[in-house]
Amino acid sequence: MAFRRQIVRATLQNANGNNFAQLARAGGRCLSSASPSSSAAPADSPPQLPPFDHRPKPYKGPSAEEVLQKRKTYLGPSLFYYYQKPLNIVEGKMQYLFDESGKRYLDAFAGIVTVSAGHCHPEILKAIVEQSELLQHATTIYLHHAIADFAEGLAEKMPGNLKVVYFVNSGSEANELAMMMARLYTGNLEMISLRNAYHGGSSNTIGLTALNTWKYPIPQGEIHHVMNPDPYRGIFGSDAAGYAKDVEDHIAYGTSGRVAGFISETIQGVGGAVELAPGYLKMVYDTVRKAGGVCIADEVQTGFGRTGSHYWGFETQGVIPDIVTMAKGIGNGLPLGAVVTTPEIASVMSQKIQFNTFGGNPVCSAGGLAVLRVLDKEKRQQHCAEVGSHLIGRLGDLKEKYDIIGDVRGRGLMVGIELVTDRKEKTPAKAETAVLFEQLRDLVFTVSESRRTVLTV
Amino acid sequence: MQRFVARSGLLEGGRRRAQSLLRSQQQQQKQTRYFAQAAREKEIANDVLPKMPPFDYSPAPYTGPSVDEILAKRRQFLSPSMFYLYKKPVNIVEGRMQYLFDEGGRRYLDGFGGIATVNCGHCHPDVVDAIVSQVKRIQHPTILYLNHAVADFAEALASKMPGNLKVAFFTNSGTEANELAMMMARLYTGCQDMISVRNSYHGNAAGTMGATGQRSWKFSVVQSGIHHVLNPDPYRGPFGSDGEKYAKDVQDIVDFATTGHVAGFISEAIQGVGGIVEAAPGYLPAVYKNVRKAGGLCIADEVQSGFARTGNMWGFEAHGVVPDIVTMAKGIGNGMPLGAVVTTPEIAEVLTRRSYFNTFGGNPVSTAAGLAVLKVIDKDNLRENASTVGAYMKDRLTALKEKYEIIGDVRGRGLMIGVELVSDRQKKTPANAETLHVLDQMKEMGVLIGKGGFYGNVFRITPPLCFTKEDADFLVDVMDYNMSKL
């Protein structure tokens, strides 16, 4: 992050300010979904946010400088933040965030693909507040209906025999549990994950994660990172067969021939909104199962209708996994994660005690169930499909216009725009992305933490 | 205990005879239980049985699913290894301070605190206020943007720490906190070997499952680089309360099982899951010295003993040590999914080598709750209360030990108390069946406590810290009553 800020500073001093400002303005108008589409030259005045009838409460707390100072002192040097002048976000409502002065921002990042229903959605708030006033926490050693109702609600959304639910508190915890289940169920050790994947930061999941920025030098054994079926940068383009063969090869030459399992995201989030080449999962699931392994779908970012066309990302590839992990959007921001699997796989876990103190607590379960209901009632999946395709369409137009946009990809409301200085070489446009990112501070965007330079929406 | 005699006398030939004897004994016991229940009700009416302290609060009427419906859904949709306490599980639907209410509005004294988690008291108004006002403003922007809640909480937490412990990382659970602490120790020292104590519990992810020292919690997966040392257990350990003797085992491991340099040592000041076992006096200072000589860091797992539970703010304080890393969860948020790692700026620096990020960690709602908890601990004088009421309850339980042979040990500090049941005081044979039975009977009479220990024969008493002397009396009297019926 510090390195990125250096690039921005240098570039802002040297760059032709006009170019980038124009690009920013065009990008801004384009991404506000309510504005009329137009491929005319960008206007001279910056685009306006769509109107929104909500007044944030006056803020009387510490200023941005005070907060930043405390963070530096008490939260450690490794905790990074966005922007040269970081945003002090004090309030949220649906798709908007408000800073200390009451200024409104369009939140195109949703707390890292987490706030699925909208900030402070009234129905979800109601569920959380009511339950917090009744009972926050007793653990599952006693009965409570909230966890049971939520588990039922989740299971109903699952295909096949996926109907046993484990509740945890985060995506990392969910993937840790899934990995352990795979190893116990199969009796094998080797796990396979994709290069450019992100699955968590704890001891086992850090091994599955395949982006060097996120990997600390600690033992992370028995993991094989296979070729990423990346249609834009991958060596086989969108031809899944080539990539799927790599999985076969890893198993044949790098393992005993038997594996514990394979895990992947359907659209890599941290890796830059990279959607797997079509048909990839079908082939790989087949290969992995033949080698005795189980297939884990990491739906931490793609789940709950975000992809528009389907409720779960894996459905876009026409497969049914053996284990599904989820977090982020599951609770609209509540610290909650889950693992759903089949009764057969779940049964191996009963060999010992597996317990999670906070997992499935009444407040998070009530919040989670409210999220499921809101997403259905307000037809959010369909909305993602509609607005998403409109967005991708407009961004596609922008790509025609600006050489620097190398790729526009994604599905529903999980979209990536990759900037390159050379369309042939696909040289990452690091500096330009950093500058654009800052310029777009009025719309809240992010840059992915990969070698690439992708703005993700 | 005729049932146990009958079962142990089974032979091939007399099997059928023994079985019918068993059946008639069971029928007899059922009848006895029925009469006992009736007699008990009469006794309550006649003022003979202990009475729960009064509490001016009426729970809301419950109109949700019944026990049977919930059980059916749990069986169908939740993990098959998910267990519950009691023969007839309790459906807890509401909580207020140190009391819980079931679906019928019946009040229970919560002697377990959601497993040493609800320190301020269920739905403590100050904590609920903080949660509700924050959740209505913003639940989750991530800490990629600024927000004062996490900064204020980190500052307040640091002010409760000794030495140079002042940098905080926020996670969502104790497991996540311990995972992070272990990784930091390994990165900081460049060594892989970690030392943990037998009978400990540190979490259920790969690294922390390795550190955990009890087989019931360890699945058959790779858990490398951990060495488990002798437990400085004053009751069951070979050296009694001589802490320094146990510390020698740590030195041995360093000398013979590692390169001579280790990443670190992790322990709980009082083992929670392990049955409220407090480290023998003198152990931690000796071990910390040995570990630091071997270049390792000392991690204090305060997940259960932290936040005033032992009468001090932190469990390690009673042992006169200052750790290098402190992990916490459970009581930190009065039940909010929250965990934390606090360490020195030098150690915190290791994470800058790459990126570590926790999406939910440090969110405004959890940290607002955390800050409210710290304030309540001071405002409601919880340290003092835990110390006073805890000492009082421990005294009463020790008196109970004089009365009943089956109580092998009474131990703990503040409101983290353990009562170990044995069928033979010399051999210390665990009395599991009796433990389960009394636990169940106490629930019938309105007292909820926990169970733990490697053999499952220890009562764990870890109530909300607003527990009163009257509550303690009721708990001990109910235990007394049920032990007298054994």
Automatic annotation (TrEMBL), chain A:
One of its GO terms (biological process) is photorespiration. This is alanine--glyoxylate transaminase. Residues 32-43 have a biased composition (Low complexity). Its EC number is 2.6.1.44. Homotetramer. Belongs to the class-III pyridoxal-phosphate-dependent aminotransferase family. One of its GO terms (cellular component) is mitochondrion. Keywords: Aminotransferase, Mitochondrion, Photorespiration, Pyridoxal phosphate, Transferase, Transit peptide. Its cofactor is pyridoxal 5'-phosphate. Residues 32-65 are annotated as: Disordered. It is found in: Mitochondrion. Its main location: mitochondrion. PROSITE patterns: AA_TRANSFER_CLASS_3. It is an enzyme of class 2 (transferase). It catalyses: glyoxylate + L-alanine = glycine + pyruvate. It comes from Linum tenue.
UniProtKB/TrEMBL annotation, chain B:
Its EC number is 2.6.1.44. Belongs to the class-III pyridoxal-phosphate-dependent aminotransferase family. It holds the Pfam family Aminotran_3. It catalyses: glyoxylate + L-alanine = glycine + pyruvate. One of its GO terms (cellular component) is mitochondrion. Keywords: Photorespiration, Pyridoxal phosphate. It comes from the Eukaryota. GO terms for biological process: photorespiration. The keyword Zinc does not apply. GO terms for molecular function: alanine-glyoxylate transaminase activity; pyridoxal phosphate binding. The lineage of its organism: Eukaryota, Viridiplantae, Streptophyta, Embryophyta, Tracheophyta. Its cofactor is pyridoxal 5'-phosphate. This is alanine--glyoxylate transaminase. Gene3D superfamilies: Aspartate Aminotransferase, domain 1 (3.90.1150.10), Type I PLP-dependent aspartate aminotransferase-like (Major domain) (3.40.640.10). CDD domains: OAT_like.
